[in-house]
């Protein structure tokens, strides 16, 4: 099997107006200057308002564009929601689903996330499916069963290594500056790999598993070198080109 191409995906959350487009231009220019020495794919997931203009700015494909959520249906009477088809039409190639902030702010369940993953696939988008334990669950020794249950429930049965990416994001590590140890990351990613392989065979062996939670330039090299870590989902450190480039430099 060929090596898995890593992915560094930036999640801008509810941040960024037109002025922030300069950051994505700087990232794209840096990738151009790195030529083919960069051994990772790069993606930015802006707020929905910037999707189309960012996709147009990045139409050379050096920076991929993703959404941060989608509705399970293609269209209809759902005020404020955006469908996977709309994201694809705006130029996105992927969508983050089941992020812990969606799970907590909007009471998203594994079943609900799975319906959104199916919608993403229907629209031709790659689903980046987020899983991860809370501090309380980790403290109670429940990390592995919690993550296993989220994986099982949030990912539909028919997936490929191209249309589905898993992001392991311990909730307590998101936006806190805290990270698990490399050994802890290795343990969870090994469990995820085993579960994916068992369920999806070769697709599960080739599927990318990202680590997310306070990744920054100074810890990226260590975290990204852990076995079964195939890239990063980055929040805070993806908002400024200089910070994201420091992470890309580890590839
Ligand atoms: C995230 O929200 O996906 C994330 C990883 O955030 P941060 O990098 O800011 O911890």
What do these coordinates show?
The structure is a single chain. By secondary structure, the protein is of the alpha/beta class. The chain has one domain: Aldolase class I (TIM Barrel, Alpha-Beta Barrel), CATH 3.20.20.70. The chain is built from 11 helices and 8 strands. The protein has helices at 21-34, 51-57, 84-89, 100-105, 110-122, 135-139, 143-154, 182-200, 202-206, 217-224, 241-248; strands spanning 7-11, 41-45, 64-67, 94-97, 126-131, 164-168, 208-212, 231-234. It has an 8-stranded parallel β-barrel, surrounded by 6 helices. Helix 5 crosses helix 7 (143-154), helix 7 packs parallel to helix 8 (182-200) and helix 10 runs parallel beside helix 11 (241-248). The longest helix is centred in the C-terminal third of the chain and has 19 residues, at 182-200. The two termini are 20 Å apart. The mean pLDDT is 97. The chain binds phosphoenolpyruvate. Phosphoenolpyruvate is lined by residues 11, 169, 174-175, 212-215, 233-237.
């Amino acid at each position: 099997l060929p090596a898995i191409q890593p992915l560094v995906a930036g999640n801008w959350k509810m941040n960024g107006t037109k002025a922030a487009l300069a950051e994505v231009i700087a990232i794209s220019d840096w990738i151009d200057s790195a030529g083919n020495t960069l051994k990772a794919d790069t993606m930015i997931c802006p707020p929905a308002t910037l999707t189309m203009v960012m996709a147009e700015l990045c139409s050379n494909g050096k920076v991929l564009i993703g959404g941060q959520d989608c509705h399970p249906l293609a269209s209809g009477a759902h005020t404020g929601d955006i469908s996977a088809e709309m994201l694809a039409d705006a130029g996105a190639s992927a969508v983050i689903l089941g992020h812990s902030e969606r799970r907590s702010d909007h009471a998203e369940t594994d079943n609900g996330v799975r319906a959104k993953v199916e919608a993403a696939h229907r629209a031709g988008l790659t689903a980046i499916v987020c899983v991860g334990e809370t501090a309380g669950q980790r403290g109670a020794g429940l990390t592995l069963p919690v993550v296993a249950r989220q994986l099982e429930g949030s990912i539909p049965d028919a997936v490929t290594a191209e249309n589905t990416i898993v992001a392991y994001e311990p909730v307590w590590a998101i936006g806190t500056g805290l990270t698990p140890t490399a050994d802890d990351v290795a343990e969870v990613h090994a469990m995820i790999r085993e579960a994916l392989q068992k369920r999806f065979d070769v697709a599960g062996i080739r599927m990318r598993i990202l680590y997310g939670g306070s990744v920054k330039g100074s810890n990226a090299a260590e975290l990204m070198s852990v076995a079964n870590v195939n890239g990063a989902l980055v929040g805070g450190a993806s908002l400024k080109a200089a910070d994201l480039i420091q992470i890309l430099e580890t590839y």
